[in-house]
Amino acid sequence: MSDLYGVIHSRRDVRAEFTGGDIAPGVLEKVLNAAHAAPSVGMSQPWDFILIRDRALRETFHAHVRDERAVFAAGLTGAEAERFARIKIDGVLESTLSVVVTYDPSRGGPAVLGRHAIADAGLYSVCLAIQNLWLAATAEDLGVGWVSFYREPFVADLLNIPPGIRPVAWLCLGPVSHLQEVPDLERHGWRSRAPLVDALHHDRW
Ligand SMILES: Cc1cc2nc3c(=O)[nH]c(=O)nc-3n(C[C@H](O)[C@H](O)[C@H](O)COP(=O)(O)O)c2cc1C
Predict the structure, then answer these.
(1) Do residues 45 and 108 touch, judged by C-beta distance below 8 A?
(2) First to last CA, the chain
(3) What is the pTM assigned to this prediction?
(4) Is 175 part of a structural domain of the chain?
(5) Start-end of H helices in 52-95
(6) What's the pLDDT score for residue 200?
(7) How many CA atoms lie within 13 A of 93 on its CB side?
(8) CATH label of the domain that carries residue 119
(9) Among 3, 55, 125, 204, which one is most buried in terms of CB atoms within 10 A?
(10) Is 97 helix (H, G, I), strand (E, B) or coil?
(11) Which pLDDT band holds residue 42 (cuts at 50, 70, 90)?
(12) Would residue 196 count as lying in a domain?
C-alpha cells in the first residue's frame, strides 16, 4: 500500500493478528528510517530504538503487562469490567519483534531551540517518530501494536536504559494475517471514534 490517505485510514493498533513471520530483508530498516525522519524540536532527534527479539526479555515484559492489566481491571465494575475482560491489550509474544522507543531530554541540549517554554515538546517529537514508524509499517503491510500497560522503571531496568532516558512506547511489530477494518476497542463496545465535527472549533474553543 502506498497511498498516504489509504495508509492513514487502514493503520490499526494490532494485538491478535500477528503471524510471528519474518520481515523481508531491508524492510525493518526502511521503517526505522521513516521513524528517524520525523520532525523534532530544535532538531534534537531525542529518540532511540531498542529492537528486542530475545524471547526471555519479552516473556518477562509480558508477565509485567499481565500484572498491570490486573491493576487496571481492579478499578472496573459491572458491564465495563466484563467488556474489558474480552479485550486483548498486547501481542508481545505473538509478534516478530518489539521496538521500544525512548526519549532523551538531554539530547541536543542544553539550549534546545523551541523547547524553552514547552518542556513536553521533546516528548511530542518522539511521538511523531512513533507515528512515522506506525504508518511506514502499515505501508509495508506490517502491523504495530502500542503497549502502555507498564511502569517506566520496570522497563528501564529490564532493558538497561540509562538514567534520565524514558521509555515512551513498547511497540509490537511484524507481519499480520490482516488489519481489522474497525478498531478493537470499537468492535468490543469500549469506545468509538468520534466524528471530526466534535473536535472542531472555529476562532475560539
Ligand atoms: C499512547 C498510546 C498507548 C496505547 N496503549 C495501548 C495498550 O497498552 N494496549 C492496546 O491494546 N492498545 C494501546 N493503544 C492503542 C489504542 O487503543 C488504539 O490506538 C485506539 O483504540 C484506536 O484504534 P486504532 O489504533 O486501531 O485506530 C495505545 C495507543 C496509544 C496512542
Answers:
(1) yes
(2) 37
(3) 0.97
(4) yes
(5) 55-73, 78-85
(6) 98
(7) 10
(8) 3.40.109.10
(9) 125
(10) strand
(11) very high
(12) no
Q: What is the pLDDT of residue 158?
A: 98
168 lies in some domain: yes
From 148, 170, 182, 193, mutation site for ligand 1 pocket: most ligand atoms within 8 A of C-beta: 148
**Long-range contacts of residues 145-149, Cβ cutoff 8 Å, at least 24 apart:** 145/13, 145/14, 145/15, 145/18, 145/90, 145/91, 145/95, 145/171, 145/172, 146/13, 146/170, 146/171, 147/65, 147/89, 147/90, 147/92, 147/171, 147/172, 149/65, 149/68, 149/69, 149/72, 149/89, 149/90
Ligand 1 pocket member 149 (CB < 6 A):
yes
> Ligand 1: which atom is nearest the Cα of residue 90?
11
Confidence class for position 106, pLDDT limits 50, 70, 90: very high
Mean predicted confidence (pLDDT) in 35-55: 98
From 146, 182, 185, 190, give the residue whose CB has the most ligand 1 atoms within 8 Å, as the site to mutate. Answer: 146
Averaged pLDDT, 32-44: 98
**And the C-alpha cell for 22?**
519474518
pLDDT digits (tens, 9 = 90+) for 48-85: 999 999 999 999 999 999 999 999 999 999 999 999 99
pLDDT for 2 equals: 66
Q: Tell me whether residue 197 is in a domain.
A: no
Please tell me the distance from the alpha carbon of residue 35 to that of residue 168, in angstroms, as a whole number: 14
CB of 129 within 8 A of CB of 79?
Answer: no
Counted domains in the chain: 1
